[in-house]
Design a protein that fits this description.
Protein name: P63C domain-containing protein
Shape: globular
Strand content: 5-15%
Distance between the termini: 26 Å
Strand order of the largest sheet: 1-5-6-4-3-2
Largest sheet: 6 strands, mixed
Number of strands: 6
Oligomer: single chain
Number of domains: 2
InterPro entries: Phage_Mx8_p63_C (IPR018874)
Length: 295
């Protein structure tokens, strides 16, 4: 065999429904023998209602994100998830797919381009699909959706939660650095009608509860409890470090940063706390069920 890539067998197969109740698309998906969750190559384009023919491919990227105005938003993670994955089709032939996590990454890429004002008119349809998909995926996560679609959820190892926690939480806490953008605090103060001083490090006591509820409680079950164990309060009710210092840089920190990006957008679109809570429920409801691909 002359190919220089590995071909995997799929242990579970199914069709993933993406979108909302009024409009959704079914795309082929699978869980491979190495527990990698994938979508078919055509499924990536179907998710955004885009044809594959006639699209230009730039710098080794799928053509759906190969436009020149998008390249400034393509990072190493996108490039890594864009690498084709070869697997055996049901009829014995080989097929090509992508890491399923490429779908939410493509969504983020187009939404960033839209926010930066560099998107073009021909991309408006994809941007609208991206908004719908982000709302859909924020609820349960791409991995959980594929596990349900393929039936793999019933065969997962019993200790998977412990594996998940070990990937989310670092054994040695990270050196302190600001993981929460200033925009998060500015919007939190605005929603609560608090006076905001960007030069001050003082924070209202309730802000900790706010952060736990809308940030850490949205991580997979057990993560916040484990963080509290590793970072307990002292006799004065204070913690020696910030919770985010205990998150693993490969998984936990990346999850935190992505969540904050979406959360801050919801905060910006809300006029007050009550409206924020309503918007938050619509976007992040059941987000605590998010699961993680285990390599």
């Amino acid at each position: 065999m002359s190919e220089d890539y590995e071909i995997y067998h799929a242990s579970h197969r199914g069709y993933l429904k993406l979108g909302n109740e009024e409009s959704y698309v079914e795309i082929p998906c699978a869980v491979l023998e190495n527990e990698k969750r994938i979508i078919s190559q055509t499924g990536l384009f179907d998710a955004f209602d885009r044809p594959r023919k006639g699209e230009k491919r730039l710098e080794g990227l799928p053509s759906i994100i190969g436009a020149k105005n998008l390249l400034q938003f393509v990072d190493e993670e996108v490039r890594e998830k864009s690498k084709p994955i070869h697997y055996y089709h049901t009829n014995g032939t080989t097929a090509v797919g992508y890491d399923a996590e490429l779908i939410p990454l493509v969504c983020e890429l187009y939404l960033k381009a839209d926010e930066a004002g560099v998107a073009v008119a021909s991309q408006e349809s994809i941007i609208e699909h991206a908004r719908i998909l982000v709302r859909s995926l924020a609820k349960v996560g791409i991995t959980a959706l594929i596990d349900e679609a393929t039936g793999y959820q019933y065969d997962r190892e019993k200790d998977e939660l412990q594996k998940l926690l070990s990937k989310y939480i670092a054994e040695d806490f990270l050196k302190w650095q600001s993981r929460f953008p200033r925009k998060f605090y500015k919007e939190a103060f605005r929603l609560h009608d608090w006076e905001y001083d960007p030069m001050s490090l003082k924070r209202p006591g309730y802000l900790g509860k706010f952060t736990n509820k809308y940030v850490y409680e949205q991580m997979p079950p057990g993560v916040l409890e484990e963080l509290r164990k590793r970072n307990p309060t002292n006799e004065k009710g204070r913690r020696a470090r910030k919770h985010h210092q205990h998150l693993s840089p490969e998984i936990g920190v990346q999850h935190l940063e992505r969540h904050l990006t979406k959360l801050i957008t919801v905060m910006e679109l809300s006029d007050n706390v009550n409206q924020f809570e309503s918007n938050f429920q619509r976007v992040f409801e059941n987000n605590h069920q998010l699961t993680l691909e285990l390599d």
